[in-house]
Structure formats: structure tokens, C-alpha cells
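Protocol step 4 of 6.
Sequence for Bacteriocin biosynthesis cyclodehydratase domain-containing protein (Micromonospora matsumotoense) entered exactly as in the expression construct, tag removed. Do not edit the line below.
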Amino acid sequence: MSTVFESVAAARPRIHRDVLFTAAHDGVLFHNSGGGFKITSPSAYRLASLLVPVLDGRRTVAELCAKLPDPQRAMVGELVSALLSRSFARDVPTDEVDPATVLGAAVAKRFASQIGYLDHYAAGAPRRFAAFRDSTAVVVGSGPIAHMCAVSLIRNGMARVAIVGDSDGAAAAEAAELDATGVPSAVLDWRPAGDEPTWADLAGADIVLVAGGDGAARLTHRLLAAGVPEGKTLVPAWTFGRWAIVGPAGGTDRRGCWYCAMLRLSANDSTPAAAEVWRGVAVAGAPPAGPAGPTGPLASMIGNLLAFEVFRLTTGALPAETDGKVTVQDLESLDVVSEQLSPHPRCVYCRQEPTPIALDAAALDAAPQQPPGPDAATDAAAAQLSARDGLVQPHTGIFRRYDDEDWDQTPVKIGTVLLTDPAGRRRRVSAFDVHHVVGARTRALARAAVAYADQLGAGAGSVGAVTGTSLVTGRPVEVRRAAVEPFGTANADRLVEPTAAGAGAGFDPAAAVRDGLASALAFVALRGAIAGALPSRVPLDTCDDDAELRFLTRSAANLGTTVELLDLGASVPAGVHALLARCTEPRSGEKLWTIAADPSWRTAAVRALCDLVGQVQLRQQSTDPQATDGTDPVLVDYHPDTLAVAGTAAARTAADGRWQQVLAGLAEAGTDVVLVPIGGSDLPAGGLFTVRVVLQERSRG
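Step 5 output, C-alpha cells:
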């Protein structure tokens, strides 16, 4: 007997309701909305025609094949195995009960469609539906959204729905009709003790739905500020300018809250919508100044959506669209989008401190696994970037969107990210890559993360010294807060240079630390060169043996400028190379410069030259001749021509080292390397880590 048949003989397969099968010239094609597969055999279609109608989960494969000979059993086994492995069918547990046993015959018959819908997605459909039916939802509101929400809840099987507000009677009529057919249903009229309901008034509800209206935002904020009681869930539907928002769900162990959503929406919106919402929150009964709320079919859509979210939350068969998310509907175009919502670092209700980073220094030199071939490597980089799409969203994203479609992308690639930093400044942060836009966007996202996290520092509202981790000893070390937050109030007296140097970001902690350590060392090298350790000029013709360096120098010439590459080896710590590239922008005559450091001379040179060429290209393609990359300065008001040069030094493209050697050299010189995570928990949750690396004398630790 076939081993495949034996592996599925005890299964009770139930084929999903969205699966179709079609005859092919050499077999049968199974497909659904997500894809399909083909079974090649002359008799495959006939077998599917006979088998699919009985794949209802009531009998095992062995029972279905009891009278079949072995060859046909093997074919059935192959077909069932293919369906199960591709999630076109599922194995029904033996303990799954009949819906009538759990719900009663009348309820099971009346809501067979809803139970079948749940069964399509998950096991235990009768019990899941019972959880929805036995929950009590209270709909707070008097408008059309509230009316349709209550009707939809009753119509889809919830036994008890309470209403706080004026009702149009439709939900009560629906409940009476169901009750008359033996399906117990009730609509309750709850009256709060005061003008607005409190949690004491809503004590009998499992889920509280704030269903639109002019006071929806105010009531949601009041209930949130009072604290959502254990075991209860708060789901609001409210308006923000021209958008209707459903969510986020508030309650124990929920991700994000209404206040987080307001902070994100306010940062990403350029209209007065946020001010209008906050005015309504602060002043009871304030007349709305924005567009009228949803009415007619649009209000019905939102009410149904709110009710369906209750169905998701209580049954668990489908991921809730408001748990760590919001649904945004454009009131003009009716377009709907679901966006992730990360807890905001400045939320007063669910703020979380920066995520601690535990890192072994050896991880800095660990080479990432690269798939073979350039195309595979690019695809892998694109997949990594796509995995962080939740960070870049137009409404509730930490970053609003990529804004690089209009660049010519030659000679180097430009990635640009739009964001509003925590200080309220709208910024366009750009970065550059020699090879592809994916690389440029990856670097731009990292730079934007630094710009965002640097404004938050090591902990919102914290004062005093910051505790970091030494990369040299692995022990906790105290660092002056001004050194960790150079753009914050702790550095108002300019105890340290206000600089972006030392701040780094990456898709993993090691990448973030490498980025931060490289910029910190580049800053040390620059300060040393300014103090008198003069750099050497690198003749560009000595770079011609390297394809990327040759491309960058020639690209600069094609843009009408001549770059100068300076080796800051005289002022750089042992084991690292720092290079400064400078030029005159041909149109404005402004002096531009970039700096990079790395254990590899070539890597530092490519980075410095690529960033400089990108700066020139950015200005020539932008409508603003003074356009910058939008990042914070490495050294404020520095003019690159003030740096004198002492002699020349040939390119050292073969000079390559390791970060552990750099750390050893710093330790030998008495310098500690202290790692401090900055920002909040929102970036790491999305797969982007931000740190600040502080270099200080070991005696301070």
C-alpha cells in the first residue's frame, strides 16, 4: 500500500469552500484566490469529480477508500495529501462537534452560513461562533453608523446587543423577528448615569463600540484615559478630516491605542484635521468644523465593518483588523486600507522604553549569508526591505512614504523617505547606492530611522545619566545623557558637539552598531584632522584599478565637478580607515563634503565618494538648488576647505581589517565603546534597530 495513503488514512479532510477544480488536457487543476496546483494523470479529473463532494470532514480517508483497490487508494492518497499540504483542505479533528450540539438546532440552522464561514478558516467553528454569540457588545452612538452596527451584530448571531444612545428601532425589530423563530435575541437600552457613559455604566459589556458621531473621539479618549478594565475591549469608529477610522482596539495586551493613532495620523497629515479632533476632545459639545460625518450607504459600510470586527475579535478565526492596526476609509473616494499601528514612544498610555540590545562584539564581523548571483542578492535585499513595509505607511506609519520616483537614478541611485520627526519637522531624507534603488532605499530608511530616534533619545522623559553596555568589556557603563541625546534638552548648554555621528541604524543590531561605530570613528578622525593631524590627498588615478571607485570619480566629472579624496589616516584610531570627499557644486558654487569610516579602506572610500556624487546629483535634479539629504549634521557649520592637506597617499584598496581589531585598538588606547539603544520599541518591532555609540575614556566607566 502507498506510504502517502497511509500518512493521510486517518485524516478527515474538509475541502475549503473557495476551492475550484478544472479539467486540463492532461489532468486536473485545483485553484483558489491565492494560487493553484496541477495533478497530472489521465483519470485525475474524474477522480476529483467523485472525491471532492465527499471531502466534508465527516469520514476518514480510510473509510472513503474502504472498497477501493490499492492503485486507486494510492491516487486518492496523493490527491488528499496535495490538498492538505497546500491548505486547500484541512483535517477535521475527531472531537469536533455538531453545531446543533453546541448552539441548539434553531440557532445552528439560522446561522449556518456564519458557522460555515468560520469553518473555512479555522477548526472549532461551532465553539468559535458560540463565543461571538454569547458575548455582549454595547454600541455607543445615535447616528447611522451605530444603527447599522447594532443591526449587523443581531443579524449575524449576537444574542445580546446593548445600545447607548437613540435607536432607530431596526435592530430591535431584527431581534424580535429572530426571537419569534426560536433564536433568542435581545436589544437592550442602556442609559448612562451622566451625560457620557463611564466604565461603570458599561460594566455588563464585553466589547464597547464607539460608533461614530461628533463626540466619538472625545468619548474614546475619556474611556481610554480612565483605563480599559481587564477583560474588556474598546473599539472606536471616528473621523479624522476626510478619513473614517475604525480602531485601534484598546484593552489588555492590545498593541497601540487611540492616542498612538492620533500621534501617527497627526504626524503624517498636513491638514487641520488633527487640530479639529483635539479641539473636540478638549471641549465638550464643540461644534464640528470639518466635513460632515458619514451618512447613507457609507455609514452602513462603516457600521458593518465595525460589527464584523467584533466577529473577528470574538471568534479568533481571522486576524482582527484593529488589533495593532486601524482601518482607514477615504470619505470621498471610498478607498479602504488597513495599516499597522505601532505603539508611539510618546504615548502616555502604552509608551515603551527602547528595546535593550545584547550584542557580542564578534557579531560585528559576522558576514551575512549571501545567495549566489547578483540577481539573487538583489532579490534578497528587496525581500528584506519589503518585510519592513509596515514602517512606511501614508497614515499611521513611522515614515510616510518613499519619495524617489521622480529621480533620474543616474549615475548613482537615490532613495528618499518622507517623515515627520518627533520634533514636528517634516523631512525628506535621502541616501545613495552605486548599484540599485533597493540599496539606496535601505540606506535612506536607516538614515530616516536615525533622524527619528535621535529626537527621542534613550528614554522619553528620562533625566540623569544613561546606562549603556560596553562593547569592550560587556559590562554596564554610565554615559552622560548629553552624549546620547546631543540634539535634546540635556545638551542645551552644548556640553558635547550636537552631531549625528555615533547614531546608527540597521536591519539587525549588528548592522546598527556597525553604522553607529563607523560614524563615531569618522567624527573622531575629522576632529583630529581639524586639530592638526593633517590628512593626505589620494590621487584619483590610483583608484582606477577598482571598478566602483573609477565609476564614481568619472561620474563626478560627468556631473561637472572634480572630487578630492582625503585620507584621514593620521588622526584615525588604530585599525580603521577614514576618508573625506569634497568638491564644489558646479551650479551654486557651494562646497560639499562627506566622510566615511570602516575597517576596509575601499568600503570607506566607496561610501564617501558615493555620498558626495549623490549630493551633487540630488541638487542638480531637484527644484531646490540648496537641497540636502535631510540628515542631521556631522559637524555644524564646518567648511571643508578649511582642512589643509599634507602630501599624497596612494589608494589602499587592499587594506582590509575587522571590527574586533578596531575595538581592540580602542581598548588599548584607553577608549571605551558604549552602546545605548535609542528611540522606542516601535522601530525594532518593525525590524529596524537604532543605537548610539559613545566613545569615552575608560576611566569614566
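Step 6, annotate. The chain has a mean pLDDT of 90.
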